[in-house]
Specification:
mainly beta; Pnp Oxidase, Chain A; ten-stranded antiparallel sheet; two-stranded antiparallel sheet; 12 strands; about 60% strand
Length: about 170
């Protein structure tokens, strides 16, 4: 059995070009849309979770400074980013450490960019926030989720929860 210990390192790519100078990435939260249900036959209010309907998603990239990569991601156009992660695990059966390859694919459009601070003997801590329109994750080569709001896709653990919606809409 594998027990996650730590992220060893990560790299970010767009069009097979490696972006350097990225210090940290905050991945999007996945929040389902909800609808309050109240009225006759319900004793109060129930919050109905809408199957496969995902609220807006955002990602934040923190840079050491306003690098060339940071400025490239500021271009007001879509960017398809590939985040490759080396995650260290403890294998309790084999009693050894292993490295698992994780990958996150983000389709993003920039929302804002902050060049950061200018302070002696430190990084500027520049950062950018991005609207995410496509989000997929892989663990050791196996897809664990795929969210594509424009194409009515919400796959979690291999099940596409929007398949019936696409069928009902004739898509």
């Amino acid at each position: 059995m594998l027990h996650p210990e730590s992220i060893v390192d990560f790299e970010v790519y767009e069009d097979s070009v490696n972006f350097v100078g990225i210090a940290q990435v905050t991945l999007p939260n996945i929040n389902y849309l909800t609808q309050d249900i109240t009225g006759a036959g319900i004793s109060g209010t129930v919050e109905a979770v809408l199957i496969g309907m995902i609220d807006k998603m955002n990602a934040t990239f923190n840079f050491r400074s306003a690098t060339e990569a940071a400025v490239k991601l500021l271009k007001p156009e879509k960017h398809l980013l590939d985040l490759r992660v080396a995650e260290q695990h403890w294998d309790s059966v084999g009693t050894q450490r292993t490295i698992q390859a994780d990958k996150y694919i983000l389709g993003v459009i920039p929302k804002n960019f902050t060049p950061g601070d200018i302070v002696p003997a430190t990084t500027s801590n520049a950062n950018g926030e991005y609207s995410v329109y496509y989000y997929a994750a892989y663990k050791d080569g196996k897809q664990i989720w795929e969210i594509d709001q424009f194409n009515y896709i919400c796959k979690i653990g291999g099940v596409d929860y929007m398949a019936d919606v696409r069928k009902a809409l004739g898509k």
